[in-house]
Write the structure tokens for this entry.
Amino acid sequence: MPGPLTSLTGANNFFEDFKPGDAFRHARGKTITEMDNVLITNLVMNTAQGHFNEDQMAKGPLKRRIVFGGITASMVIGLAMQDTAENALRELRLDGIRFRSPVFHGDTLYAYTEVVETSESDRPDAGVVRFRHVGLNQDGKVVFEGVRDVLVKRRSHWGDR
Amino acid sequence: MTEDLTTRARFWPKGHAYEDFELGQAFKHHWGRTLNEGDNSLFSSLTLSYNPLYFNAELARDHGHPGIVLNANLVFLTVFGLSVEDLSEAGGLFLGVDGLTFHRDCYPGDTLTARSTVIDMRESESRPDQGIVTWHTEGHNQRGELVVDFHRTNLIARRRRPS
């Protein structure tokens, strides 16, 4: 029986549920608006005005503001997070983060995930899952790729808590 | 009056060009930033970060935390953001990040500071007006503990085109 903690999160995304080669298409996409890009860029103190000065960008080769890559990464990982880290204890590592093409206001992002490997951690109640995430835009073009290690709870230790 | 001001005004530039960097050069970035609960709620909500440790304080306490945990990507992006004026504000695409480690959890009220070292520089074959620079960036909390570190690579505009 799920206890009060476990009843708040999914029952099918514990460490034991992830197997190398598993591939997921996450259910929700998100259209990145000016609100997302300008708000988060300014919130995290990113002073590069290519993300928030439309006048300057309109006069340059891109013709408009570009979405901060850190937001593209956070959004693709976010789109995957319920499925991959709803039962996570913490984020461990990111690697091979690449921005394959620019994202602009109004573009819609979708996330795909593959389980690369699973391994023991330094604690008995959780294991490490290595995910590879791919973010696509509305035209199916790859905008983001990256590998992410997450410390995920084991059902054997957390399932009835 | 205004015309006189705009004529006299001296442009106060920000950022560094490719020629300003050298291997091993170290930067202690400006400002620092205390992340509060509002920052975290906003960021976690907008990015659909549905791990309840980021937005359910009771659940976070039941996991042994003093309260809500800061979203790891908010910590990463804030340390990144503090580094931008010194490293990449003058322009050039953000290409990627490698070897990022989240060393410890952060909580609302923690203050982050950032510093970086230039670890690689090379010419761009396809873009003669830009170079490619890689930095190792570290974020520390108010106790001087390392919370995140990563290698970031950017295209960086050159001040002069190579002759």
